[in-house]
Specification:
Elements (H helix, E strand, L loop, with lengths): L11 E3 L5 E3 L2 E6 L3 H6 L15 E5 L4 E2 L2 E4 L7 E3 L1 E7 L17 E8 L2 E2 H9 L5 H4 L5 E2 L4 E2 H4 L6 E6 L2 E7 L7 H9 L8 E4 L7 E2 L5 E6 L3 E8 L2
Parallel strand pairs: 3-15, 5-11, 6-18
Antiparallel strand pairs: 1-2, 3-4, 7-10, 7-16, 8-9, 8-15, 9-12, 13-14, 13-17, 17-18
Length: 235
């Protein structure tokens, strides 16, 4: 069978030590740090029993960019940064709901990324009770660092993530403060989707989200283990 148009090139993320990770799907977790939930005007759970269910949204795989220049997106005057841990799945989940206790072996590695957000479009959609895909799912909306295999990262609970913009620290958070851990998120996702090798999960952002403007340079870091450096350019 002949394709009637050229097939798009798959998005691939470089892996430290060699090779590339082809991206299948991009899941994102909303409000997974209590301090960020509060700064967005939402109530933060006081205990695990009060957590409820995690909130998910998706970005297209071709929104992933691997560092360097990121063009300022059209249609917005309020682009925001949200620094996040990126989890890369290297195995398919078994059929059915995944037990959180056996989720860890699905993870191939980790990176650091930005969940770029057209905040004005998101806020306007929320105010009308409409879907806010245009605020989250757009071209170049998911810059991601190279991936580092799990064994080279170690215990996530002991690590932190940080974002500097133009040399100023904007965001910092400890993974020990996540409302839902990586295994818990994979369990919750498996109740809604068939998780596959090639999937990415953006794990949520700490407080301190704010604007990015053309000319701004950013450095996102996972405790110095892996960094994402880039600059916002004119559209």
């Amino acid at each position: 069978m002949v394709d009637v148009i050229p097939a798009p090139t798959p998005v691939r993320i470089p892996v430290r030590g060699g090779g590339h990770f082809p991206v299948r799907r991009v899941y994102c977790v909303g409000r997974n740090f209590a301090d960020h939930a509060r700064e967005m005007g939402a109530a933060a759970p006081a205990s695990k029993a009060e957590r409820g269910e995690p909130v998910f949204f998706l970005k297209p795989a071709n929104a992933v960019v691997t560092g360097g220049d990121v063009p300022y997106p059209p249609g917005t005057r309020n682009l925001h940064h949200e620094v996040e841990l990126v989890v890369a799945l290297g195995r398919d989940a078994p059929p059915g709901v995944l037990d959180a206790k056996v989720a860890a072996p699905l993870v191939y590695g980790y990176g650091i990324g930005l969940d770029l957000t057209r905040r004005d479009l998101q806020a306007a959609a929320k105010a009308k009770g409409l879907p806010w895909d245009t605020g989250k799912a757009f071209d170049h909306a998911a810059p991601v660092s190279e991936l580092v295999q799990v064994a080279d990262v170690g215990d996530l609970a002991a690590r932190t993530l940080t974002l500097h913009v133009n040399g100023e620290k904007r965001q910092h958070g400890a993974f020990a403060d996540l409302i839902w851990t990586v295994p818990e998120i994979l369990h919750a996702l498996s109740r809604l989707y068939a998780l596959r090798a090639g999937d990415l999960v953006f794990m949520g952002t700490p407080a301190g989200v704010g604007p990015l403007r053309p000319g701004d340079g950013f450095v996102a870091s996972l405790d110095g283990v892996v960094e994402l450096k880039g600059r916002i350019t004119d559209a």
